[in-house]
TrEMBL record:
Its main location: other. The keyword Manganese does not apply. It is found in: Cell envelope. Keywords: Coiled coil. This is Efflux RND transporter periplasmic adaptor subunit. The lineage of its organism: Bacteria, Pseudomonadati, Pseudomonadota, Betaproteobacteria, Burkholderiales. The keyword Coiled coil applies. It comes from the Bacteria.
Length: 447
């Protein structure tokens, strides 16, 4: 039927605004708001082909977590199907609402009027683009229906032009290849699974000395002074640290006095032994006591000589903050620092158990230092462990040691950290890709 002049002018305006829209979102706002002059709706909603809400009339951006929109997300697929069966106008009866999914009836009675007019929009080829839903108290009059029928093709055309060509799904692309190409692709993928590749694993690593010597406390005591700074280069004979010697010096003085007393007693007994047989019998006891006091004195002197610890050879003193050791009580054999040779750096690697691969001594390693991520250092594994221990990060890991090549040692400073890439045996690509899923499946199934 021909449109009245007022509705015809409104239709021309709606079409002009649709053609002037620069995006699908802008077109949706125009469809949901500008059409109110000809369609007296309570609310207008615009959905895309995936049932996603694009526009709500009167709102610049819908609040996705509101109760109304949460209900609308659940109810819209049912509303769209019922409206398509009713040819656009849906006014559900009580029986239809009772048969609807859970929560649809309560939400309809609370938020929506008597009916909904659903206007589907599709591409020229028939593929759906979306829908415009007008909430009305009564079915649209014939002039209003004619108005929507006129502007719907323009809305659909503009939406199609701005949305672009639809992307075919993987299933559609696969079907268009044909049986011969499908078989060739499957055969190529199967053959690809048998291509030999090398197993690799990534693990945190740290540059450590290869032949570092532990410098430990030689006796029980209290650390008095640390003579060097962390990572300081020292020469053979340079003092490293000293223990407090107050107690030992007191014991030394007591031991000296004890020796003097024992010597005096032995001298007196020796003089009396010529005339007194009784003193002669005590002479052996006093001689042993004097020797015992001298042994005690020698032991204290030996302990006092160990108070000051010096470097046995040239190297670098590796330890933490010296303030942590100042005044601390240490036991015999407790490590205080390492004396490392900076010219022989190695790599300490913590390989997580979950990433473990078969590694033999001599396996190649690449070390990517954090300070030089684009210049990897090459080396080889020299030591592997059979027992997993907790790494500093608290992850069960195997401790590996590697040696760097001659040309790369100068770039590896002690203490630097990075990531080591370990290279194992060659396996087929299928095993490399499905090793972890197969291991997980075996743990889950127990086979």
């Amino acid at each position: 039927m021909p449109l009245p002049p007022a509705l015809s002018a409104l239709a021309e305006g709606l079409e002009a605004r649709a053609r002037a829209a620069e995006s699908v979102a802008e077109l949706g706002i125009s469809m949901a708001n500008d059409s109110f002059a000809g369609v007296p709706f309570r609310q207008a909603l615009v959905f895309d082909a995936q049932d996603r809400l694009l526009t709500v009339s009167g709102l610049a951006k819908p609040t996705e977590d509101s109760p109304y929109l949460l209900w609308l997300r659940r109810a819209w697929p049912w509303v769209r199907e019922q409206a398509a069966a009713a040819k656009g106008w849906l006014a559900p009866t009580d029986e239809m609402l009772r048969a609807a999914p859970e929560g649809v009836a309560e939400g309809w009675r609370e938020w929506w009027p008597a009916g909904a007019c659903v206007l589907p929009l599709a591409r020229r080829g028939g593929e759906p683009l979306g829908c415009v839903c007008f909430l009305l108290d009564q079915p649209p009059a014939e002039p209003v229906a004619a108005l929507l029928a006129r502007v719907a093709p323009t809305w659909a055309y503009c939406w199609e032009m701005m949305a672009g060509k639809p992307r075919a799904g993987w299933r559609g692309r696969w079907r268009r290849l044909g049986r011969l190409r499908q078989r060739l692709i499957i055969a190529a993928l199967v053959l690809l699974l048998f291509v030999p590749v090398r197993q690799t694993a990534l693990a945190p690593a740290e540059v450590v000395p290869v032949d570092a010597m532990e410098i430990a406390a030689a006796i029980d005591g209290v650390v008095k002074t640390i003579h060097v700074r962390p990572n300081q280069a020292v020469k053979a004979g340079d003092p490293l640290f000293s223990l407090d010697d107050t107690t030992l010096r007191n014991r030394l003085e007591v031991a000296r006095q004890s020796v003097a007393v024992a010597d005096a007693e032995l001298a007196a007994a020796s003089q009396l032994a010529f005339n007194d047989s009784r003193s002669k019998a005590e002479l052996a006891i006093l001689t042993g006591r004097a020797q015992e006091r001298r042994a005690e004195l020698a032991a204290v002197q030996a302990q006092l000589a160990r108070v000051d610890v010096t470097a046995p050879y040239d190297g670098v003193a590796v330890f933490a903050d010296p303030d942590q050791w100042q005044g601390r009580t240490v036991a015999t054999g407790e490590r205080i620092m390492l004396l490392a040779n900076p010219d022989k750096p190695g790599v300490l690697i913590h390989l997580p158990v979950a990433d473990a691969i078969t590694l033999d001594e001599g396996a190649p390693v690449k070390l990517f230092l954090t300070v030089k991520p684009l210049s990897p250092l090459s080396g080889q594994v020299t030591e592997t462990s059979y027992q997993a221990l907790l790494s500093p990060e608290g992850v069960a890991s195997y401790r590996l040691r590697a040696e760097l090549g001659e040309t790369d040692r100068a770039q590896a400073r002690l203490g630097l950290r990075g990531t080591a890439k370990l290279y194992g045996d060659r396996v087929v690509l299928g095993y490399y890709l499905f090793r972890r899923p197969l291991a997980t499946l075996r743990e889950w199934s127990g086979l």
